[in-house]
Amino acid sequence: MESEILNCILSKIGDYLLDATVRQIGYIYHFKTNIEDLKKEDKSLRSLKDSVQQDVKIAIRNTEEIMNDVKKWLSDADSVMADVEKFEEEIQVNKTCLYGWCPNWFWRYKISKKAAKKTKIMLELVHSKRFDRVSQHRVNLPGMDVFAPKDFMPFDSTKATLDRIVEALKDDKTNVVGLYGMGGVGKTTLAKVVAKRVIEETIFDKVVMVFVSQTPNPTNIRDQIADSLNFKFEEKTEQGRADRLYLRLKKEKRILIILDDVWAELDLTTIRIPFGDDHKGCKIFLTTRRQHVCLAMRCQHQIPLNVLNEKEGLSLLKSHAGISDESPTLNDMAIKVAGECKGLPLAIVSIGSALKENTIGEWKETLRKLKMSKLNVIENADRDVYACLQLSYDYLKSEEIKFYFLLCSLFPEDHKIDLEELVRYGMGLGLNQDADSIEDSRGQLRVRVDNLKASCLLLDADEEDFIKMHDVVRDFALWMASKQNHAFLVNASISELQKVESQEQYMAINLVEWERGIMLPDGLIYPNLQILILDAYRYGSILSEASDAFFEGMKALKVLTLTQVQLSMKSLQFRTNLRTLHLKYCKLEGISSLGKLKRLEILSLEGSEFDELPEELGELSQLRLLDLFNCFMLKRIPPNVLRRLSHLEELYTGRTYYSSWAVEGMNAETSNVSLSELNSLRRLTHLLLHIHDKCLPKDFAFSSTLQSYEIEVNEDFSIAKKKFSKSRILNFKRTKATSFAAFKALYPTLEHFTLSSIVDCENIVPTIDPKGLNELKCLQLAYCGELKCIVDASLPQVPATAFSNLMELSLEGLRGLREICHDGRPPKEFLEKLESISVYKCDDMYTLFPPMLFARLHKLKKARIRFCTKLQKVIELEGPSHSGEENLVLLSSLAELTLLYLPQLRCIWKGPTQYLRLKSLKKFEVGGCNSLTYLFSSSLAQSLVQLEEVIVWGCGRLEHFVSSEEDNKGEENVVAANGNDILLPKLRKLGLEYLPNLISLCPKNYKSTWPTTLEELVLRGFGNFAPSFIVELEAVMKTAFENLTNLEIWWCDNLKHILSLTLAQNLVQLKYMEIGKCEELEQILVVDDETLLNNKDHLFFPNLFQMKVIKCHKLKCVFPVNIGRHLQQLQVINVDGANQLEEVFGHTNRGDLINDKQILLPQLKKLSLFYLPNLTNFCSVDYHFIFPSLKYLRVKDCPKITTRFSYAQNDQSVHAEAKASKTGEEDGSAVNLTIWSHLELSDILPPYKEQ
Q: Which one, of 883, 941, 886, lies nearest residue 909 by Cα?
């Protein structure tokens, strides 16, 4: 029997050995197949990765947040592909032994096995791509802090009003607060200050500000709220969107909605804003010019905002007029002028800005006009404000600047006005007649806008090239336009256009809220109308339609903007006065009729649908700008059309599928315009172009007269983001170096240069440009496999000066790149203005900055070096370099240094570092550098006075942060001003992860002084702490924890405890504590002084927001039970996988000295207890915890728990009570319990029974 068993066992072993042997032999037999499979899967993975990367680029352009799974997948793919690249190189180098005469079987076995393993990894990675989309939502929009006024002057009167508003909003019984006051008194400014303050004081979690205006639109109001909360409506109907908004607002516990500029009662239930009994956490704050609006809106607090008193008004006037107390004559005059402004801030600011640096005579004339002003009473406006604004208007220097001011009132209320639109409208109306070009017109407009802003008639819009106009100023401008017999119509619907009286008085119409998807009416008679704007400030999918007769009664029309309208161009053929025509996202027919508009100067067809430009377009001899941006349907521009546009200055064809310009061999009927026609356009200065290199004609060269350009060659998807930019950009992809000759005239002015997958190119200078690209600011090089250096100084053509203005350098995937500058001294001024460098996957570099190059880096601010497998030194200090005083400030501007995955990096700086001063370094990260043994020399560490963030991880041989002097020859005689102290006065974040050989932060004879500024401490992966490091760490904790907000400790196996009670009392700012997988951890908090625990004057963790404990198996309890009463801000408790945990809040085993055993956690929203096999209670027996804010409760796989969870209906709170012996369902204990929402609490939990 025994022999049979033995035979059976031996047989099985034999089978296993045979299978294993066959499998091992199979690696040799299938060598070729395994290598081919590897290449096949590598190609598949690269293709899939490129596809995902393209989706990511598009998502980022759309300001969407990339999902973490996608980021990780891309990172894994990069890592695997880099590994495979290295593996393939190994195969090429070691293919055979004995000079190729016989195969090396052991090598084949090893390589084949590796190939099979890597193929499997790639297959798994391809199959693990389970995401259908790469992003889940848009990046959060800027909050209220962006809109907080920068120049708010807190006078006593406004401060008192501000305090009243804030106190009213704090009142639990208050739902709606109203602020009323006349136009120009500062209601909007004060509302923004309120928003800033209630967020700073944490009265509300969210603040949303909505601009309502005289014609409130519920859809627009909902959209503004949705944008502020960063959520998107999926519903199509208005009712569906309203209901969705209601549900979204209900999720906010404390939210303030500011309704600015309310003119009449607003039905909040129609908009679906929950407040009052429906949602006590949602409060309304409105501003209005009319007190009866406050009454109609049932405001519990109606607060007036009065004008400034005499002293405050005078102070504000002097501030904006620039008057000092040393000017008695002007001071006397200022008192009188301020008195005439009646205490109105808008009027005071406007007059003060207009009179700045003016003579006493002009002050007297202003005072006379203010006293004599007799404006007619204007409905809904204060005559004193209008009188002051008219004086500011009268002070404007020219009629053109006055008309531009009036033109700004055409745009919607609170709208960001695009200066590009403004200049085009001005040109259409014949303004800027003395400008020689469109760019000159832009320059003139900017000067005029600056004057208007200086006069406080226009405002900045927090975005470059955009402005805004205050609603009171806009009302004044509209009134002023009507006074001058060219009235503007801005508040009408399409259907009302036919009913408007005195249609002949209107010079301009902009229908802000016009209906979509309708037939535009015929029979309109506006004989003096020069501007018609039917724009879509919110795009939809429904087109309106215009008949051929719609424009018949508008014979004076000069400027026309239509958005999302279907029309035939025949309807415009008799509007021969048109000079500016914008047809955005329209569907166009009969486009040949464009040729009839002989005076047209500006033509924009952005995003419109048509497949071919007509030959008749060439008849527009006055055309100066042609905009075809986003015209995805455009397939053809006939030859000889562009060359006839002799006055054309600007051409934009970016982000279109129209990239196939003429290619040799096309027949005449289907051929496209040739690029050579561009050189016939002698006035062309601005060009946006997206082409293929095969469309470059032989011997063609772009003209040097281009002032700005963005040209993309072979880009699959155009990355052009902004039209009308002044930048000069070239972007080449998959192009031969021979194609570069067409662009040589642009190199002297080129600012941004991107080269990707370029062939036949070993250097940039002198091969591409022998003159040195001295205007270049940004150079990006990617996957150019033959590139060996950027500048080859060994070649005779190399210029004396090169890259003298380069500020940003990016090197990615350049497998052949060995050095930045080859052979000898770099050209003059080379990289001397460089501020940022990024190096990624450049596997043939050994030293990034040799001495001759490093000495040039006076302005370097940011360096990021990653995945360079052979890099041994970042900075080489030994060897020939510049000498003298300049060496004393080397690297003094460096603010951020990142070094990741550099396996051969032995030192960051090689040589005597006493000439380096890292006095600006703020952020320092090193990871995956397994050959590093130290980070800083002692002298270098003493210059880190600005360092704010240090993250070091995955450096297996790292022993010291700072090396001793003995380890750094050449520094023995260097003595810092602060002796042997290493000071880090501004350090905010310290992250140390997976550093198994770390001995100490500082050498023995140096003392580190830790700041009280430390906010975040992360420790991960310390299997065994060195004794010297533990001593340093305890010193850090004693001195640097005063402002600590985040504490994370993971995989620190030999830690027995985290904090003592004495130390914990210093952690008053701590918000997040996370402890994970510390196998030997027995206590998080050691009670070293019982009197502290029971002393009410001592606070422990008063600001703790989140507590997580994961898989700490020897832990018996998380906190002593009496700590619970200190945790008044705690919102999240998550305890997972602690095998020996018995209680979350437990006894100290030293006697409980507190009689009150009821503990309230008022802010706790989420409680999770997972996989705790020995958990018996949430808290010690006879204690009673109350959670009034709990929304999420989950208890899973806690078989011994006896704590009773119950729900009190009267105050909607959850109770957790620990009793001595009761178990089972009858007492409400929870072995497995999941509650996802506070709405489920009463349904799942038993009712609370008061004892």
A: 941
Higher pLDDT, 493 or 754: 754
Whether the CB-CB separation of 620 and 645 falls below 8 Å is answered with: yes
The two tokens of residue 1219 are 């009793």
Listed as own residue / partner, the contacts of 320-329 with beta carbons closer than 8 Å and 24 or more positions apart are 320/348, 320/349, 320/352, 320/353, 320/356, 320/456, 321/352, 321/353, 321/355, 321/356, 322/356, 322/357, 329/360
Write b or e for each residue in 1014-1030: b if 16 or more Cβ atoms lie within 10 A of its Cβ, otherwise e.
Answer: bbbbbbbbbeebbeebe
- Kindly state the helix (H) or strand (E) to which residue 442 belongs, with its residue range: helix 438-454
- The string of DSSP codes covering 38-86 is HHHHHHHHHHHHHHHHHHHHHHHHTTEEEPHHHHHHHHHHHHHHHHHHH
Packing angle of the helix pair 105-127, 2-29 (nearest 10 deg): 90
Tokens of 973: 């005689």
- pLDDT one-digit tens code per residue, 336-371: 877 777 677 777 777 777 777 777 888 877 777 666
Would strands 587-589 and 565-568 be described as parallel, antiparallel, or unpaired?
A: parallel
- For the chain, how far is it from start to end, CA to CA, in angstroms? 71
* Local structure of 1028: helix, strand or coil: helix
Higher pLDDT, 497 or 657: 497
Rounded Cα gap, residues 260 and 209, in angstroms: 7
Which residues on neighbouring strands pair with residue 1189, listed in sequence order? none
Tell me the backbone φ, ψ of residue 720, rounded to 5 degrees: -60, 130
Quickly count: other Cβ atoms within 10 Å of residue 675's Cβ.
Answer: 18
- Paired tokens of 490: 């801005």
Q: Copy the structure tokens of residue 953.
A: 């991880």
Beta strands of 1093-1150 (E only): which ranges? 1106-1110, 1117-1120, 1132-1136, 1143-1146
- Using the 8-state DSSP alphabet, how is residue 748 labeled? G
Burial 819-852 (b: 16+ CB within 10 A, else e): bbbbeeebbebbbbbbbbbbbbbbbebebbbbbb
The set of residues, in sequence order, having a beta carbon less than 8 Å from that of 736 and lying 6+ positions away, is 693, 758, 759, 760
Question: What are the beta bridge partners of residue 559?
Answer: 531, 580
CA 1045 to chain centre: 24
DSSP for 846-861 reads SEEE-HHHHTT-TT--
pTM above 0.85, yes or no: no
Nearest 5°: the CA angle 1062, 1065, 1067 is 125
Contact between residue 408 and residue 469 where contact means Cβ atoms under 8 Å apart: yes
Contacting residues for 1171 by C-beta, under 8 A, at least 6 apart: 1136, 1137, 1196, 1197, 1198
Prior bond to 1102 cis, omega within 30? no
Min mean pLDDT across 49-63, 286-300, 798-812 is at 49-63
- Residue 1239, both tokens: 């709405």
Q: Give the CA distances from residue 89 to residues 76, 92, 111, 603, 713, in Å, rounded to whole numbers and listed in that order.
A: 20, 5, 12, 56, 31
pLDDT tens sequence across 997-1032 = 888 877 777 666 666 778 999 999 887 766 667 776
